[in-house]
TrEMBL record:
This is non-specific serine/threonine protein kinase. InterPro entries: WAK_assoc_C, WAK_GUB. The keyword Signal applies. It holds the Pfam family WAK_assoc. The lineage of its organism: Eukaryota, Viridiplantae, Streptophyta, Embryophyta, Tracheophyta.
Length: 260
């Protein structure tokens, strides 16, 4: 067998290898950079994709305006709403909803001092899925609480509190609301999910958070066609980033989106 065949410059093996190499290299180099930039990312257990984007890991055009997410030092996805930070517990792309809990939190290792503030939604991109609200009262006189057994049942544990003050929580229609406001310095309102027949304290309700629905461009058509959804902040239009180039709605639509 003539082994020199495999080493001649124009042997079929060499030509086939070089052709395959250059074809693969050309295909990789021709993939649209915006499509590559908008690859879904994760923060802890949360997978992040359009309409959200992680500020430090993705380009702004990978998300819808107002849907930026940060990934904190504890590897938790954090969403800023009404100038307050909320931990994202769950994202439901199908129902366009996410469950949030205030980053201040509850429990032995957290503080629920007035870091938890009123939530205000002055934005048509978001709406609460619940109509019930809980009220959290701060700096309640502990001595007065001890003398009110009913109100004492509403006390929640917060680290950092001294023995002179306490925090209580209750639903907005609780009969003890007036009594609590007299014994405490300040109160804030927070949305809660209340389920029929459930025997859970208001403190636990506040801890598990609430569901927020969002309104943004529908990504399903682009996603199902193999594209990655994005947004043009210059023209303020939805874009479908595909391996070849940006399209208007879908990689199968045949309608290209040319950036200016």
């Amino acid at each position: 067998m003539n082994r020199s065949f495999f080493f001649t410059p124009f042997s079929p093996v060499v030509i086939l290898f070089m052709a395959t190499f250059f074809l693969l290299a050309e295909k990789a180099s021709c993939t649209d950079p915006q499509f590559l930039a908008c690859e879904p990312k994760s923060c802890g257990a949360q997978n992040i994709s359009f309409p959200f984007h992680i500020q430090t890991a993705q380009q702004e055009f990978c998300g819808y305006p107002g849907f930026a997410i940060s990934c904190n030092g504890k590897n938790k996805a954090v969403f800023n709403l009404s100038n307050n930070e909320y931990i994202i517990q769950e994202i439901d792309d199908q129902n366009h909803s996410l469950r949030l809990s205030n980053a201040a939190g509850f429990g032995k290792n957290t503080s629920c001092s007035p870091q938890i503030q009123n939530i205000s939604l002055n934005d048509d991109r978001f709406r609460l899925s619940t109509t019930r609200t809980g009220v959290l009262f701060y700096n309640c006189n502990s001595t007065l609480l001890e003398n009110d057994s009913k109100l004492l049942n509403h006390k929640v544990d917060c680290s950092g509190e001294n023995g002179n003050v306490s925090t209580v929580a209750m639903l907005d229609d609780d009969a003890l609301l007036g009594s609590a406001s007299e014994k405490c310095e300040a109160g804030v309102v927070a949305p809660v999910d209340v389920y029929t027949g459930e025997n859970v304290s208001i403190g636990k309700m506040l801890e598990r958070g609430f569901v927020l629905n969002w309104v943004a461009s529908n990504c399903s058509e682009c996603d199902e066609s193999g594209g990655r959804c994005g947004f043009n902040y210059t023209t303020y239009q939805f874009k479908c980033f595909c391996p070849d180039r940006p399209h208007a709605r879908s990689c199968k639509s045949g309608e290209y989106f040319f950036s200016s």
